[in-house]
Amino acid sequence: MKKKAISQIEQQHAHDLATIVSQPAVIHGQPAEHLDDEPAADSLPLFQAVAPSVGVVEEEVLAVESHILSEDEMEVGEPIEEGHLPHDCVPDVEVIASAESDREEDAEGGDFDTNEHTDKESDSDSDEEQSLCQFLVDWNSRHRITREAMKDLLSALRANGHPELPLDPRTLLHTNVNYDVEERCGGSYVYLSLTKSLQSALSKVRNVDINCNTELHLQFNIDGLPVFNSSTQCLWPILCRVVKPFTSPVCVVALYSGRKKPNSFNDFLQPFVVDMSLVLRNGVKISTDVTCRVRIHSFVCDAPARADVKQTKHVNFRQGCDKCTVEGIYTKERRMTFNDITSAKRHDTDFDLPLDPEQYRRQDCVLRELQVGMISQFPIDYMHLTLLGLVRRMARDWQDGILHSKSFPFHVRRATISMLQASVVNYSVKMPREFQRQCRAINECDSWKATEARQFLLYLGPVILKDVLDEKMYEHFKLLSIAIRCLCSEELLDGYLHSASSWLDQFVNQYVKYYGNKSVYSVHAHCHLADDARMFGVLDNFSGFPFESFLGSLKGMVNKSYQVVQQVVRRLSERELSDNFPEDRTILKHQHKCGPEIKGRPDLLQYGSACIGRTHISSDKKDLRDCCFMVCDHVCIVRNILAADQSGELCVVYSIYDKVEPFFHIPVNSQEVGIHSVSDLSDEVFFSTFDNRWRKCARLPQDDDHAVVIQLLHEV
Ligand SMILES: [Zn+2]
Fold this sequence. Notes:
By secondary structure, the chain is α+β, with helices and mostly antiparallel strands.
């Protein structure tokens, strides 16, 4: 055990408790009057700003329907029928002519005083100096500027009217050079204070009241990533984020780098366990007079990392399932398969039993000192299991292997695979802008990212595969697709949890029938997914998505093959000054004067598109991918976007589809889970305030008039 490092952590912890730290304005020292287990409305995560308010939908149906206008009452370019417009406006509206960055104006500085931070500086000079420094800090973080390039820029700026800027980028960026690197578990290791990492992460959270009654639920991620394509050098961080009562950005607690993964995970975790024990006992000091209680929510890892961290057998062993006691069968194709889904479940208390070398546990895990539920608090991450594992495996099987043997009952014809290739490409370009990455063709499925696999499983697959796969095989695919859809949706989870569990059991049981003897762990473990959703809520509450994108950014911080952890620690400290956590706001674009207006409201200006928080909305007749919404059981196409100049009030003019039917009935009426077959778009127009009743939909056209419309889940 590295006593020196642990002793430093204890000292650091005592120091953190005693130190007064500067904190963001959003944190208040006084306890809230009514804060209990339920989060206050204003402390919800930022991404829920457009979340549905189920309780008010029925009441607001009337409000929407009262705005129905006849075709005669509305003409393009002319004001339409006067109506009452509710004033539950969308705040913080910004109107821009283009998507160009507005930060360049900040970079234009005047003549600054040579001496930094003197009291004699005028306020405006000081502000300009600060804005230039902040711009440089943000710009450096956003574009990953090398130190040499930043040094050249600072030198040039100093020679051209900005002598107040430092010559050394480390001074400008407040680079942390005061950290301890030790040799540990076969590589280089840095432990950062959990308290300081959390303070930094919480300083970027806005509109949240944090006080002494706040209990922070922490989620951790432990995973390894290769640093370079051409070497075995890898990075193993311990990452953390707050998931309750609000969501915070991800922060780094510890970093390991070496030629191989840590040679002892207990050794790797030991400093964290010591620090976490103190934080669990004493709370975490957020500001001068605010110390919050802390609780461990969960550990999110992929299956190999779970086995490493928990010191259990890996999934290619007979006892490889970490949720049940099924005995794996090793097949002649050299595959460990798990065919039984009725075996006894594993329990947290199993870890209290003595070790048995032949069984599931290899040795004791140091995390048990934290009273962590070694089964219940290690949920299955559907990003790795379902999306990167099972969906890509199925897509691969449709293209080759046993399914193409004509003796196999559900073989897939090569001609239909060609159709599938074309369909994925055609449809993925019609997906809404919320999908930042288009799904690549199915013959590239091995390199699909998790977001592409999710797009295929939840949106493209149920539509495209209908005419491609054998009917029974298509029904089998839908069991997985609809079950995961229900487990990902806040609205559907409670009502469909039991059904989703049953559909996943059916899917796993029937897998061998449709795909051959390939019921490996990534298939079998789906029978346990609903249990974790029962405990933690929707799958995105415990998925690897937020950590995966952070891991990608960590990788981008490494430029050289030596001193890897040192590079990452320095770049992380530089990012603390930058202010890149996105803020939800409304942006209006493409102002015009040729759309339908509302009579009596000449104050409303017309726009071609808008971005409200993370929702894109458009009235482009030629490109309908951002025009389709559901509001109060109607499927709508947006015709115009109207906004008041000052108040931020936002209205949309829209038409609805007259014919809305289920797209399928098995395993459930598709309309119950937000999938509709629509036709007969009406010429009649309506208008309404754009608010949280509006749900964005993907619209996949079938022909000129028909389309399949799929409601987007909150987390796309
Ligand atoms: Zn199992």
